[in-house]
Amino acid sequence: MVGGLVATVALPAFAAGAAKTDEGSVTVQQMAVDDAQTFVAASDANASELTRESYAATTAEEIEKKKAEEAAAERARAAAAAAAAAAAAASRSSAPIDIAMTSPGSGEVRWPILNFTKGRGLWDSGYHQGVDLLASCGTPLYAAAAGVVKVSQESYGGYGVGVSIDHVIGGQRVNTLYGHMTYGSRQVSVGQTVSAGQLIGFVGSTGSSTACHLHFEVHINGGVVDPWAWLQSNAG
Hints:
CATH architecture of the domain at 117-234: Distorted Sandwich
Structural class: alpha+beta
Order of helices and strands: HHHEEEEEEEEEEH
Helix content: 25-40%
Mean pLDDT: 76
CATH superfamily of the domain at 117-234: Glucose Permease (Domain IIA)
Number of helices: 4
CATH class of the domain at 117-234: Mainly Beta
Strand content: 15-25%
CATH topology of the domain at 117-234: Glucose Permease (Domain IIA)
Distance between the termini: 141 Å
Shape: elongated
């Protein structure tokens, strides 16, 4: 019985091998060699070595520390941007208004601003039809002469907050223009009659401007004239 069981169990395993040859018998070892499966080891694969430079952190603590540092840097950048925006807004905000102020002098023509530094003049640095009179934002601005307000706008092209006044001086049609005023500081409206030296607004840096100043223009009979020379000859 034992011999029969051995033959029954062993026969299927070697039956296919026995059919491979018509020439004599083969041993169990020969069949094992012929039918053995092949295994290729990845002995030729290139191993790559990770270096510390290829990653920023190796532990959870280092990762959290790096995240905290990045968050702090971002908060610092945001705070700096907010401070700069606040400073810019403050320089353009409405200034305190004293409507009783008037430009000193008794002449027909007055200086439109006091305590200033002369900047660019007529045609300086390209297309520049006026003179820049530099002063701190919030410095009072006055009508250079009596007249009627032609323009009074919060957004007057590149002039930003601007006012334009028509005058008749010495029998000539004169127009004066005041640009880059502070937002909300205009004291006059279109069609209003103003007197020489009357407060009309405050210095700002609106429109095409990079610093607080008054851009002042003078046009006589429709033509551009040098406003600096005109003021020096007539203001008093």
